[in-house]
Specification:
Helix content is 80%, strand content 0%. With 49 residues, the protein is mainly α. The chain has one helix at residues 10-48.
Length: 49
């Protein structure tokens, strides 16, 4: 049987790239919030001295 005409796997590829982008953005956001929390802790320790 011949393969069907048109694009193949476009839905799966789009879904995968969407999920990967979501995962990467989540990771970046978590890193940014972690840095902010650490900066706040360090600044509070410096100010307490």
């Amino acid at each position: 049987m011949p393969k069907p005409k048109g694009q193949k796997n476009t839905k799966n590829k789009a879904k995968h790239s969407k999920l990967m982008a979501k995962k990467i953005n989540k990771k970046k956001k978590e890193e940014a919030t972690r840095k902010e929390k650490l900066k706040a802790i360090v600044n509070s320790q410096i100010n307490n001295k």
